[in-house]
Amino acid sequence: MPVRLKKLIGTILLVTLVCVYAIVATIFAVALLANASPWIHLIYFLGTGLLWVIPAMFIISWMEKVPKKKA
User: Fold this and answer.
1) What DSSP string describes 27-64?
2) Separation CA 6–CA 56 (nearest Å)
3) Is the pLDDT at 68 greater than 80, yes or no?
């Protein structure tokens, strides 16, 4: 797969990941943390704010892989 195509697909995946993840994390926060203390909110949003990095790492590493040359 050409590098430019991989980067285009990866960029679209990253933007989609961030948007969907933010919506889902917010929906869970509204549904589950309505009456929770501010400390619980802080821990939840700190955790979910960092958790999206794991799938993003895999997408970025896939984008940056150098294609193998055919012999």
Assistant:
1) HHHHHH-TT--HHHHHHHHHHHHHHTHHHHHHHHHHHH
2) 14
3) no
Q: In this structure, are residues 62 and 6 in contact, taking their beta carbons and an 8 Å threshold?
A: yes
* pLDDT tens digits, one per residue of 13-55: 999 999 999 999 999 988 988 888 989 989 998 999 899 999 9
Torsion of CA 15, 18, 24, 25, to 10 degrees: -170
Q: What is the pTM of this model?
A: 0.77
HSE-CB at 65 with a 13 A cutoff on CA atoms is 11
Q: What is the C-alpha to C-alpha distance for residues 16 and 53, in angstroms, rounded to an integer?
A: 13
Cα–Cα distance measured from residue 47 to residue 40, given in angstroms and rounded to the nearest whole number: 11
Long-range pairs, 35-41, Cβ under 8 A, ≥24: none
